[in-house]
Amino acid sequence: MRFLSILFLLLGQTTQAPAQSTFDIDQIAWDLTPAADGKSVAMRMHLTGLFQRDRLVLRIPLWRPGSYRYDNYQDNLSDLQAVDQDGEIRGLLGLDPRTWEVQTTGATALTVTYTLSTKNHAAEGALPAVHLRGPSTFLYTEDTKGFPHTLKVNLPPEWDFASGHRADERTKELLRSPNYDVFVDCPMALGDLERHTFVSHGKKIEWVMLGRPLSEIDFPRLDWGRKLEAMCHVAHEIFGDYPFEKYTFLFLFTPGGGISGLEHLNSTSIISNHSGFSSGRLMDPLESVTAHEFFHTWNVKRIRPKALGPFDYSSDVRTKDLWWLEGLTSYYNDIILQRAGLRADGWFWKAQAKNYLDLQRAGGFGKVSPERASWTEWEPNRSEYISYYTSGQTLGLLLDLKIRTETQNRRSLDDVMAFLARWVNYPEEGYRPGDLERAVRAVTGWNCTEFFDRHVEGLVRPPFADILPPAGLAVTDISADAPYLGLSFQDELTMSVKEGRHSFEAGLRSGDVLQAVRGISVSDQAHALKIFRTLQPDTTCTFQILRAGEILDIEIPVNRRGLPVFRITPDEAASPQAIEIREGVLTGTPDAI
Fold first, then answer.
1. For domain 22-192, which CATH number applies: 2.40.30.170, 1.10.10.10, 2.70.98.10, 2.60.40.3650?
2. Which of 410, 409, 419 minimizes the C-alpha distance to 442?
3. I need a surface site. Which of 85, 261, 273, 486 has the fewest CB within 10 A?
4. How many CA atoms are closer than 13 Å to the CA of 247, on its beta-carbon side?
């Protein structure tokens, strides 16, 4: 038996020995040359140092990080060709619509060229404006994704270029990235660009406009720059030092559509319909998306699960944590707007209430957990669905308030975020399952396992009634199936009834004073509301009322409400400690660790 054990050990060692690999290429060099009309870009990928390779497999990504759905980027590629060091055209074999095999026997260098179709977003007759996203622009090979990539941009006359790429220290006309992930993580703006900069906490922040022009009246530049500075400052207060040398906002204004954005390590590209700024209707949404994408600089790009980097561009990449990565970022884009002074007093609580109402209207509410919604994002045609944005935003609010209450406002969700940004330590491997709960407990001392089991993995309704009152907030939470009587109270037990409501048709009138419900005498408005909540929809109920000195009994139909009612309002009778917690959310205290 001892001999067999040694033999098996030796066999195991033999099978685990690393295979000989041909990591011969030391870097990937790219050239990018836009056509003067802005409708195409000539792409050139140069691979040098090939050694005893018989084949090379080229791919275009199936998806782009931050957008969890498949795309057909290969549809914009044409004239794909591979030429060796001697100018000989090498054979290409399509393995699938987005993958090509190149025969490289005897080759020591290979130059791959193709034409990329692009869209000119400028007005007709103006200097072109082109927006490029890395994954839909650059090919890759699986065994060279970890190698350095360089980019040289050859511009037509009068064109400008902006991106988050870093200039090479030795050759300034080259942009250098340490690997493919970072290389394609920088969106690019080319053509007619309007550039602005400011300095925030010692770091240069650049914001660039391209596409359809906006007048100074419709889009005041100085005002927008101040808003960006305020947003950046709030994020810096949460996290501390910026994790970048320079940050670039790219704002592309187009003729149609709404507003969308995509996050990157040291930049973001935000696309907006230009026509909504003359009326002002798109300014608030643009502020919200901008705050959201900037917060992603930390949450998603650096606070990320193991699955989200290094990336597999050939398949779906799933995580159960999109509710945290996107949903808590939605919570924080509201935090940033409020703390930056870009929203009026009272707006924040109304925004959180509206978010929860939107969540309740989803077909999968109460049927799909936030974790499940995160995991199934890649699956098409889901009949029951909830948004991990809205569900995560609700959970972010509750986590923040619960942490503040448990720690007597000495810790907050800000502290958890700041800790995670340092602990995950990008570019090292992302966090593992269970690490979010561990981080909350490590920073705050609160064991949140029950909360996660019930409300993240499970289907238990969010515990607003338990968490919000200790934070100085009153909650009105009425489900769509709750009984509806079609009346309200003017003062104590004096009722208000609108003409046309079913209670009016039954005989109730404004000014009637409620005496009893189903034979139970009511003492005050709170007592009456408590009785109302016990009524069953699709039944009737006898009201005893006082009208002009006469006692009357009136039979009232009890209907279903049909739409939920949810409100969050400051409780002015709350204790000083509870008010401190409530105000701490809006002001940012306590300071992040």
1. 2.60.40.3650
2. 419
3. 85
4. 28
Question: Cα Rg for the chain, rounded, in angstroms?
Answer: 30
Phi, psi angles (nearest 5°) of residue 455 = -110, -15
Q: CA 384, 389, 394 angle in degrees (round to 5)?
A: 100
Whole-number pLDDT of residue 189: 98
**Pairing, β 246-254 against β 203-211:** parallel
Report how far apart the first and last C-alpha atoms of the chain are (Å, whole number).
Answer: 58
* CB 250, CB 231: distance < 8 Å: no
What residues form DSSP beta bridges with 92?
102
Entry pTM: 0.90
Distance CA 32, CA 435 (A): 41
Report the alpha-carbon distance of residue 104 to residue 81 in Å, rounded. Answer: 13
**Sites in the chain below the pLDDT cut of 50:** 1-21
Q: How many angstroms separate the CA atoms of 540 and 557, rounded?
A: 4
pLDDT at 51: 87
Cβ atoms of residues 317 and 285 within 8 Å? no
Nearest to 266 by CA among 134, 419, 138: 134
CA distance 394 to 389: 9
Kindly state the helix (H) or strand (E) to which residue 450 belongs, with its residue range.
helix 449-451
Distance CA 469, CA 578 (A): 8
Q: Which residues pair with 26 in a beta bridge?
A: none
Residue 17's pLDDT is what? 36
Distance, CA of 535 to CA of 529 (rounded, Å): 10
Look at the domain 322-474+571-587 and name its fold.
Answer: Neutral Protease; domain 2 (1.10.390)
What is the CATH architecture assignment of 483-562?
A: Roll (2.30)
| Identical topology for domains 22-192 and 483-562 | no
- What ranges do the domains of the chain cover? 22-192, 193-296, 322-474+571-587, 483-562
CATH superfamily of 193-296: Neutral Protease Domain 2 (1.10.390.10)
